[in-house]
Write a structure and sequence with these properties.
Keywords: Membrane, Monooxygenase, Oxidoreductase, Transmembrane, Transmembrane helix
Protein name: Antibiotic biosynthesis monooxygenase
Largest sheet: 5 strands, antiparallel
Low-confidence stretches: 1-8, 109-137
GO molecular function, one term: monooxygenase activity
Number of domains: 2
Organism: Microbacterium insulae
Order of helices and strands: EHEEHHEHEHHH
Number of helices: 7
InterPro entries: ABM_predict, Dimeric_a/b-barrel
């Protein structure tokens, strides 16, 4: 009997470009952090962050990631997010939104990916055919992504192994238990802290000669 395989769920990274009133940056900073705090409470949330294009720029970029499309849409269609967006309409204007699949979402420069793009306010964005598909440059080569991940994982794993060595009797635990504990501790550290930091530091090299 043939068994149909279930589709593999891929993490979805959403990048949003906004114009922020320069006279209300203090409010906008608190507002952006409030959005992150709200998203944290939703199932499937994997992390987020935001940056300004420059000290004198009104362009702000926000990036957040969910486990898959259903968990992302649960957040995007929630009453909490609707309330949060409405509270910022006086000083924040959404300009562009992109969705990115897979690990590449952490490696792409702002708005340099391949899934879907919509320009908020454009006539085409209201089209019943949905978001505009654009030929956008690909993510860095896989070997560069692998190097970046290794550069983050090796020292993190080394430090974790050294620290866990101070746990009484840890070396006597079964191998599967030790590995399980290490991966449970390291996965969120890599996702929320190490990988975003490493890719930010290596961005010029990752995107060189693309």
């Amino acid at each position: 009997m043939d068994v149909m395989a279930e589709p593999v769920a891929h993490p979805i990274t959403v990048a949003i470009e906004r114009r922020i009133d320069p006279d209300r940056t203090v409010e906008a900073t608190s507002w952006m952090q409030a959005g992150t705090d709200l998203a944290t409470g939703f199932t499937g949330f994997l992390g987020s962050g935001w940056v300004r294009a420059g000290e004198g720029s009104d362009l702000w970029y926000m990036l957040y990631r969910f486990r898959d499309i259903p968990t992302l849409e649960a957040w995007e269609q929630s009453a909490q997010r609707a309330w949060w967006l409405d509270s910022g309409r006086a000083f924040a204007r959404e300009v562009r939104v992109e969705r990115r699949t897979g690990i590449e979402g952490w490696f792409d420069a702002p708005f340099a990916t391949d899934v879907e793009t919509r320009h908020v306010g454009d006539a085409d964005s209201a089209s019943p055919t949905g978001p505009i598909q654009q030929p956008i440059p690909a993510a860095p080569p896989r070997w560069k992504q692998a190097v970046a991940i290794w550069l983050g994982f090796f020292p993190t794993n080394l430090l974790a192994s050294w620290l866990l060595g101070f746990v009484p009797g840890f070396t006597d635990w079964p191998l599967v238990v030790r590995v399980l504990l290490a991966t449970v501790l390291l996965t969120p550290v890599m996702t929320y802290l190490v990988l975003p930091w490493v890719t930010r530091m290596l961005r010029p090299w990752l995107h060189r000669n693309r």
